[in-house]
């Protein structure tokens, strides 16, 4: 019905309507560029875990995170870690062990289609060697984008609670917007929180 209605209109009126829609779309895009959302970067990922100490050991030894101080006002057990511009906040579960993470034998299951967090890596071979040395079970996958000549290497493994982690060289993938709305903003160095370095003795 709508197509018939447009066809019955005067050609000049149709052209004017199309032009008005285009101008409205351009105006919306202009406003988005002039007033972008005041977001800067991913700050942290939170995990409820069965044992905070075990998880701290994993994230510091396997992934090189650094344990940092938490606000003293917190009245629950947990730990904060930070590195690579992102934090991981661990919270001790108040429930029994079976209610946290991935249950039973599924804890060792690795499926790239499951929920996971991903870290970009500049030396996949070195990271794989580290996993081997620490005895971490992992899956390696290679994706070939033949038309673009791009190769993506991925490593998947689980933390102590069965939450999956990916390591990849995803910087090889060019970011190409799939639509005309929005504008990609890369994080600036100023998004990092103030850092107090320990004095080396």
Automatic annotation (TrEMBL):
**The keyword Transferase is annotated on this UniProt entry:** yes
Q: Where is the composition biased (Basic and acidic residues)?
A: 26-36
Location of the region described as Disordered in the Swiss-Prot/TrEMBL record: 1-37, 181-201
Q: Which CDD domains match?
A: VOC_like
Which sequence ranges are marked TM in the entry? none
Q: Where is the composition biased (Polar residues)?
A: 1-23
Tell me the Pfam families matching this sequence: Glyoxalase
Keyword terms of this UniProt record: Transferase
Q: In this protein, which residues make up the domain named VOC?
A: 41-170
- Top-rank taxon of the source lineage equals Eukaryota
The molecule here is called Metallothiol transferase FosB
């Amino acid at each position: 019905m709508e197509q018939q209605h447009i066809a019955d209109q005067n050609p000049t009126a149709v052209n004017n309507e199309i032009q008005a829609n285009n101008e409205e779309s351009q105006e919306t895009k202009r406003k988005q560029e002039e007033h972008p959302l005041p977001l800067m970067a991913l700050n942290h990922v939170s995990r409820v875990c069965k044992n905070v100490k075990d998880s701290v050991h994993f994230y510091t030894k396997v992934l090189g995170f650094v344990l940092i101080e938490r606000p003293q006002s917190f009245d629950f057990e947990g730990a904060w870690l930070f590195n690579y511009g992102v934090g991981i906040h661990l919270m001790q579960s108040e429930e029994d062990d079976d209610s946290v993470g991935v249950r039973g034998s599924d804890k060792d299951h690795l499926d790239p289609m499951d929920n996971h967090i991903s870290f970009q890596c500049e030396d996949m071979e070195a990271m794989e060697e580290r996993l081997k040395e620490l005895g971490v079970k992992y899956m390696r996958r290679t994706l070939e984008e033949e038309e673009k000549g791009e190769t993506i290497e991925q490593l998947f493994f689980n933390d102590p609670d069965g939450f999956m982690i990916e390591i990849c060289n995803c910087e090889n993938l060019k970011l190409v917007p799939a639509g005309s709305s929005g504008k990609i903003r890369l994080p600036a160095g100023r998004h990092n929180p103030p850092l107090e370095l320990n004095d080396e003795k």
